[in-house]
């Protein structure tokens, strides 16, 4: 399956289910609840192509389609919102991590996801 130019992998769909449940099926920007997470999207602050933070909870946010579209159209607002939520130090660390080369390891990610979803 493809999303834009990035191909979605089974790890992406599993991670999306995990994150939506962990974030209580609620848009983190407008705080609207979505039954079973239907209507929520996982937004990657640094895009999926950045393997080092592709499945990093600091880099991903649960957003409704409207909020996701808003941040896509207004990236400076996304930066400001993200900085405020994380704090400046954590934001800088995420930026460094995003620009560090990360190797793709779907087997490792699936093992981790299965473990955290069990708890």
Compact overview of the structure:
The model has no long low-confidence stretch (mean pLDDT 91). The chain has helices at residues 10-22, 65-73, 75-86, 88-98, 106-118; strands spanning 2-3, 6-7, 40-44, 60-64.
Calculate the mean pLDDT score and round it: 91
The portion of residues assigned to helices is: 40-55%
Strand line-up in the sheet with most strands? 1-2
Number of structurally distinct domains: 1
Q: What is the 3D shape?
A: globular
Largest sheet: 2 strands, antiparallel
SSE series: EEHEEHHHH
Rg from Cα: 14 Å
**What amount of the residues lies in strands?**
5-15%
- Could you give the distance between the termini? 28 Å
Structural class: mainly alpha
Topology, number of strands: 4
Tally of separate helices = 5
Keywords:
about 120 residues, mainly alpha, two-stranded antiparallel ribbon, about 50% helix, globular
């Amino acid at each position: 399956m493809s999303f834009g130019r990035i191909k979605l992998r089974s790890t992406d769909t599993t991670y999306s289910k995990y994150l939506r449940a962990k974030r209580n099926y609620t848009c983190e920007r407008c705080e609207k609840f979505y039954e079973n997470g239907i209507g929520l999207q996982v937004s990657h602050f640094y895009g999926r192509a950045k393997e080092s933070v592709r499945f990093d909870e600091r880099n991903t946010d649960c957003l409704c389609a409207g909020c996701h579209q808003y941040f896509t159209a207004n990236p400076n607002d996304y930066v400001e919102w993200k900085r405020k939520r994380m704090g400046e130090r954590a934001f800088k660390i995420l930026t460094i991590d995003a620009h560090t080369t990360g190797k793709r390891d779907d087997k490792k990610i699936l093992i981790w996801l299965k473990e955290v979803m069990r708890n």
